[in-house]
TrEMBL record:
<feature type="transmembrane region" description="Helical">
    <location>
        <begin position="12"/>
        <end position="33"/>
    </location>
</feature>
<feature type="transmembrane region" description="Helical">
    <location>
        <begin position="426"/>
        <end position="447"/>
    </location>
</feature>
<keyword id="KW-1003">Cell membrane</keyword>
<keyword id="KW-1133">Transmembrane helix</keyword>
<feature type="transmembrane region" description="Helical">
    <location>
        <begin position="53"/>
        <end position="78"/>
    </location>
</feature>
<protein>
    <submittedName>
        <fullName>Permease</fullName>
    </submittedName>
</protein>
<feature type="transmembrane region" description="Helical">
    <location>
        <begin position="368"/>
        <end position="388"/>
    </location>
</feature>
<keyword id="KW-0472">Membrane</keyword>
<dbReference type="InterPro" id="IPR005495">
    <property type="entry name" value="LptG/LptF_permease"/>
</dbReference>
<dbReference type="Pfam" id="PF03739">
    <property type="entry name" value="LptF_LptG"/>
</dbReference>
<feature type="transmembrane region" description="Helical">
    <location>
        <begin position="395"/>
        <end position="414"/>
    </location>
</feature>
<feature type="transmembrane region" description="Helical">
    <location>
        <begin position="99"/>
        <end position="118"/>
    </location>
</feature>
<dbReference type="GO" id="GO:0043190">
    <property type="term" value="C:ATP-binding cassette (ABC) transporter complex"/>
</dbReference>
<dbReference type="GO" id="GO:0015920">
    <property type="term" value="P:lipopolysaccharide transport"/>
</dbReference>
<keyword id="KW-0812">Transmembrane</keyword>
Length: 479
C-alpha cells in the first residue's frame, strides 16, 4: 500500500470511527428512552437491561454505518480541500478518482459488512430484543397499561384511562373498559371516574376495583329467540364500587429469555424470507380463488352458455326482458337486485380479509428487497459525500454535519416512504425498496462529474448568461 493511500485512509477512518460511535450512541439512547417506561420499576436485573442494550445496538449498527460513511467522507475530502492538499495532489497529476480509490474500496467493504449484518445479525437481534422486551412487559402486566389509548394486552378486554398515578402507578382516572370475552363485539361496557389495580406476585389474576361508575350490557346478540330479544334488550346500572378479576395466566410466567415470537418477517434471514414468500403467495392466491369461486357460484354464472345457431329462436327479442310479461319482468329484476346486493355485501365483507392477507405478503416482499437495497447505502452515500466534500472544501463538524444530516434524512425519508407505498400495494415491493437508491444514484453521478471537472454544485453563471443576453438584445445600449 502506498503512503498516499495510507494517508487518505487515515484521514477517512479517524472521523468515521468518531462519527459512527457518536451516531450509534445517540440512536441507542433514543431506543432506550422509548422503552424506558416499560423497563423501569419492574424488578428487572441489570444483566437483562444490558442484554436489551446489546441487542438494540446490534439492530442499530446497519443504520449507523451509512451515516458514519457519509459524514466521514464529507469531512475527509473537505479537510483535504480546506488544507489545499487536494490542490497539491492535482498539481502532482493525481486525479480525484485516484485520490478517493482507497476510500471507495473501504466503502464497498463496509457495504458488504452491512449486508452481512442485515442478513444474519439483524434478524438475530430483532428476535432476541423483541422477545426480551415482550417478556419484560409481561413481567408486571399492570405496568404495561398506557394512559390515553386503548390497551389490548389483557386477554378479553380493551381498557382505556386518562391518567395513571400513585406510588405504585396503580391508580386510574376516567376508566373505560370493553369486555370482549363473549366474542360478539362490545356488548359489555364499564365506565368509572376512578379505579385501582391490585396484583400480587405469582398470582394468576389481576383485580380491578372501580369507583363511581356505570355498567351497561347488551343481550340482543346473545339472546336466541325473538321474544327474548324484545323482553330483555339490555341491562344497565350505576355503582359506587365494582370489583372483578382478569385471568392473566396466559400472558404471565416463563423466563425472560424465552422466545415467544419467532416468525416475524424482520426475524428471518434472506433465505428464510425467500422460502416463506412463495408459501404466503400460495395462501393468498388460494384465498382469492375461493372468494372468486363463491361469487361465481352465487351468481349462477356456470348456467350461462352459448346456444348453437340451429337452436336459436329468431322470434325472440334481442333485449331479454322484452320477452316476458310485466309480472315476470318485476320478478326477474327483483331477483337480480337481491343477488347483486348479496354479491356486493360478500365483496365488502371480504375486502378487509383480502387486504390484510395482501399486506402481510407485502411485508415479507418489501423486507426481502429492502435488505438488499439498504446494504448498498454505504456505497451510494459515499459517492455523494466524497465529491460533495471536495466541492465545499470545509472540514470539521460544522458544514459537513449539516449536509450529512440533510442528505441522510432525505435518503431515509424516501426509503421509508417507498416501503410504506409497497406495503399498501400502491407500488411493487421492488420499486418501493429501491426508490431511495433510484433518486440518490443520479445525484451521486452528478456530484462526481462536477467534482471531477472542479466545478461547484451550481454554476450560477450558466443560468444568468442566457438571461443577460436576452436583456442585452431587448434593451439598446446607451450612446
Amino acid at each position: 500500500m502506498k503512503i498516499l493511500d495510507k494517508y487518505i485512509l487515515k484521514s477517512f477512518l479517524v472521523p468515521f470511527v468518531a462519527t459512527f460511535l457518536i451516531v450509534l450512541f445517540v440512536l441507542v439512547m433514543q431506543a432506550l428512552w422509548q422503552a424506558f417506561e416499560n423497563i423501569a420499576g419492574k424488578g428487572i436485573s441489570l444483566v437483562f437491561i444490558l442484554k436489551f442494550l446489546y441487542y438494540t445496538t446490534l439492530m442499530i449498527i446497519p443504520q449507523a454505518l451509512p451515516i458514519g460513511v457519509l459524514l466521514s467522507s464529507i469531512m475527509a475530502m473537505g479537510n483535504l480541500g480546506e488544507n489545499y492538499e487536494f490542490a497539491a495532489a492535482k498539481s502532482a497529476g493525481i486525479s480525484l478518482q485516484r485520490l478517493v480509490r482507497p476510500m471507495a474500496i473501504l466503502a464497498i467493504a463496509l457495504s458488504g459488512i452491512n449486508f452481512l449484518f442485515l442478513n444474519n445479525v439483524y434478524p438475530y437481534a430483532i428476535l432476541n430484543q423483541s422477545n426480551l422486551y415482550l417478556n419484560i412487559k409481561k413481567k408486571k402486566p399492570a405496568m404495561a397499561l398506557v394512559p390515553g389509548s386503548f390497551n389490548a394486552d389483557l386477554p378479553g378486554y380493551q381498557i382505556k384511562f386518562d391518567e395513571k398515578y400513585g406510588e405504585d402507578e396503580n391508580l386510574l382516572k376516567k376508566v373505560l373498559i370493553y369486555d370482549l370475552n363473549s366474542r360478539k363485539g362490545n356488548q359489555k361496557v364499564i365506565t368509572a371516574d376512578r379505579g385501582k389495580i391490585i396484583t400480587e406476585e405469582g398470582s394468576r389474576y389481576m383485580t380491578f376495583v372501580l369507583y363511581d361508575g356505570y355498567y351497561y350490557e347488551e343481550h340482543i346478540k346473545s339472546a336466541r329467540t325473538q321474544n327474548k330479544r324484545k323482553r330483555m334488550a339490555a341491562s344497565n346500572a350505576t355503582f359506587k364500587e365494582y370489583e372483578f378479576n382478569i385471568d392473566i395466566s396466559s400472558i404471565m410466567g416463563g423466563d425472560l429469555d424465552t422466545n415467544r415470537v419467532t416468525n416475524h418477517f424482520r426475524m428471518l434471514t434472506l433465505k428464510e424470507l425467500k422460502d416463506t414468500i412463495p408459501k404466503l403467495k400460495g395462501r393468498y392466491d388460494e384465498i382469492l380463488g375461493l372468494r372468486a369461486k363463491n361469487i361465481y357460484i352465487s351468481t349462477q354464472a356456470k348456467e350461462l352458455y352459448k346456444y348453437p345457431d340451429s337452436l336459436k329462436n329468431n322470434k325472440l327479442d334481442s333485449i331479454t326482458l322484452n320477452n316476458f310479461e310485466i309480472k315476470d319482468k318485476i320478478s326477474i329484476l327483483n331477483s337480480a337486485t337481491t343477488k347483486t346486493n348479496r354479491v356486493l355485501s360478500t365483496l365488502k365483507n371480504n375486502t378487509e380479509t383480502v387486504k390484510w392477507n395482501r399486506k402481510g405478503l407485502n411485508f415479507y416482499d418489501t423486507e426481502y428487497y429492502n435488505r438488499i437495497a439498504f446494504s448498498l447505502s454505504c456505497v451510494i452515500l459515499f459517492f455523494i459525500g466524497a465529491p460533495l466534500g471536495s466541492i465545499i472544501r470545509k472540514g470539521g463538524f460544522g458544514m459537513p454535519m449539516i449536509l450529512a444530516i440533510a442528505i441522510y434524512v432525505t435518503y431515509f425519508f424516501t426509503n421509508t416512504f417507498g416501503r410504506n407505498l409497497a406495503e399498501e400495494s400502491t407500488v411493487s415491493a421492488f420499486l418501493g425498496s429501491w426508490v431511495s437508491a433510484i433518486i440518490m444514484i443520479p445525484v451521486a453521478i452528478l456530484l462526481t462529474r462536477r467534482a471531477t471537472k472542479d466545478k461547484g454544485i451550481f454554476n450560477i453563471d450558466s443560468f444568468l448568461q442566457p438571461i443577460t443576453k436576452i436583456f442585452k438584445k431587448i434593451v439598446p445600449k446607451k450612446r
